[in-house]
Amino acid sequence: MTTLDQQPLWQPDQQRLQHSALNRFWQQARALSGQPLPDYRALHQWSVNEPEAFWNLVWDFSALQGEKGTEVLERAERFRDHRWFPRARLNAAENLLPRHDDHTALISVDEAGQRHQISYSELRVAAGQVAAQLHDAGVRPGDRVAGYMPNRIETIVAALGAAWIGAIWSSCSPDFGVQGVLDRFGQIEPKVLFACDGYQYNGKWIDLSERLQTLREQLKPELLVVVPGRGKASNVHAALPWSEWLDAAGPAPEFAALPFDHPLYILYSSGTTGAPKCIVHGAGGTLIQHAKEHRLHGDLGADDVLFYFTTCGWMMWNWLVGGLQSGATLVLYDGNPAYPDASRLFDLIDTEGVTHFGTSAKFVQAVEKACIEPIKSHSLETLRVLYSTGSPLLHESYDFLYQKVKADLLVSSISGGTDIISTFALGNPMLPVYRGELQCLGLGMDVAVFNDDGQAVSGEKGELVCRTPFPCCPVAFWNDPDGQRFHDAYFERFASLGMDIWAHGDYAETVPHQGHDGLIIHGRSDAVLNPGGVRIGTAEIYRQVETLPQIREAVVIGQQWQGDVRVVLFVVMAGDAVLDDDLKQTLRQTIRAGASPRHVPAVILAVPEIPRTVSGKIVELAVRDIVHGREVRNRNALANPDALAHFVDRPELAE
Prior knowledge:
Helix content: 25-40%
CATH class of the domain at 527-653: Alpha Beta
Mean pLDDT: 94
Low-confidence stretches: none
CATH topology of the domain at 527-653: GMP Synthetase, Chain A, domain 3
Structural class: alpha/beta
Shape: globular
Number of strands: 31
CATH architecture of the domain at 527-653: 2-Layer Sandwich
Strand order of the largest sheet: 5-4-17-16-18-19-20
């Protein structure tokens, strides 16, 4: 059980306590409920006990545009069949274009230093041109429009144009190979494909012309619109040049007024255990959830500047785009975040005045291991919030951020995922930050940790669940007519106990504090180790291993061995370090002291690299399958599938 004797690393000052958007919302919730709601735990409990009142207030507070209707929640027998705002009519693009002025909407920067920006009024015009052209080409509500694009202004313009007329947007980043794109877009059959013919990464130009020709032949879109990666022209055959296509647009159509659950995005599971699942997210649920997270939990306002390092193949891109609803400025970055060195993104904070900065836990660790101290080398005067996700933020990374980046900083570790296009637990401008913890459970999200008997536990590890329906639940899986795959993905875990609740697949632990509950993520529950019948989260081992400077990164699995499970640790060495017996002993001692004897690996092996998805996540399950001689069914989902060869038939694992 996690102890509660630690002191907070950060606490909000009176300015944040009194003037945050969450405080204003809280006051309105007190007045509406007639309850004192003395602390965050009470506010959260009200938000899940009275979902109609809560989500209705979020709509009004966030000034969502559209016809709300009189009914907030149409209840049903099954969790997934509840309908939110069933009489509402709205348009996602209209809500993501709340301003009509010259305030900067988007700033795009690439690793070569090229910079472009566009105002809200210019963004509205450009998105309207895309909408007009798509409509004239016969694209209608429900048709799919796809982007094989880097993270740049044109990508958001295209997505907004699609949403304007009710088309469904889906995107992959250009580091996906042809088969990886076909595995995704081939399932949804896009009518229009937006693509870039090249991009720069790590100082090199990657030409995509040949890939685009193959994709055009295989996907057969009715339109292929190409954005030149550099210059103004492209040599992709049978493609429409972006600028000329836009310039030929007629007047923008009216925003399509659509139901709350009309599909807005299709996102994809990692696809490392089979064909990627196509997860369909509704416009209203996505909008209202992002508005809540940005405005209330992130305290993002119209004068703020939001940055998140992401590609268009990760749900954090969609989350970043959601920041437009707050009227803020978004900063887009395309390229290697550590090019030419690991201080690159901190430069961006200073040059663009970023107030809310988002990255991955792995990036924070990389900066720390590069011995960079932004607190000395950068101003970071504007920075108020630092988001981290992708994997659990190590306890030691909290120390680094407060000691070496900025002392007065809301470190907001967040956790959710593609499945909900948002988070279950995240930050809070009115609560303290504790080492190793996500600050709080998201408002309106009835999150708990269950043991194997389906009982809620506190201070114990178990399965992260959401007990009651929420607006950003996916609309459906594409090509899943009877909903069986959808059910199996989220509701099968506790079905044998007669429980119809969302099981998210995270191994987690709630931590009670005075007035609120924090959360610790211990890794994916499907990757939990079970030596001697004791469940161990992989994050607990990573936390210890990655404190050693000799280790660049690691992956840990459970190997079936002599009727039990033994822990096997693979490490990638940093620099000239060598995995000798002394270092193995140091690793074991470090893990034993920092975690427990149960966590100590039975076998420690060195590998030159670790397989990852294209969004950078370690694929523990693929490594586990390889070690056990099982086929990894979808290598195309990996950014570096050749890395799997380092785990095949290792003689040390037969001893």
